[in-house]
């Protein structure tokens, strides 16, 4: 599993960056974050991009930076933008990766989003926005996920430990 990218996905506020950082540190791997990759490539935040070029272009750019990160070597741990599961090409690109889906309740995620100005608020009612996004993206998340965790009931450290145990089990089975 050392050559397999690990991708942490979920809606805004799910804790993707935190879980990805814990995993990258534990595994001694580089970490890639869609927000940071977007800003490095385009010189602005996802929220500013959404306002300037619209949601569709933002989502196309998010898919591009995820596919770039998946091709990086050594294989990184990636905190990926949720919109990327809407793109069939990106879902196919995720097939060889180990994907962790952080599936938290929209009410909890909306509360977390209030403290993060870099995240785009596509609608004034964040709970409604996140509920609609979850409904739209859930089939894609389920298609690509190898492991699902609820960040409202588990600490990031617990989720990371579960992922590490699963990866260790897969490595042990692969060598046996």
Number of strands: 5
Shape: globular
Largest sheet features: 5 strands, parallel
Strand content: 5-15%
What letter string, H or E per element, gives the SSE order?
Answer: EHEHHHEHEHHEH
Distance between the termini: 14 Å
Regions with little confidence, pLDDT below 50 for 5+ residues: none
Q: Note the quaternary state here.
A: single chain
- Specify the structural class: alpha/beta
What is the rounded Rg?
15 Å
Q: Give me the side-by-side strand order of the main sheet.
A: 2-3-1-4-5
- Give the count of helical stretches: 8
Return the average pLDDT rounded to an integer: 89
Give a written overview of the molecule.
By secondary structure, the protein is of the alpha/beta class. It is 56% helix and 11% strand. It is built from eight helices and five strands; from the N terminus they run E-H-E-H-H-H-E-H-E-H-H-E-H. It has helices at 16-27, 34-42, 46-53, 55-71, 88-93, 106-113, 126-144, 156-175; strands at residues 6-10, 31-33, 77-79, 98-102, 147-149. A five-stranded parallel sheet has the order 2-3-1-4-5, sandwiched between helices. Helix 1 crosses helix 8. The model has no long low-confidence stretch (mean pLDDT 89).
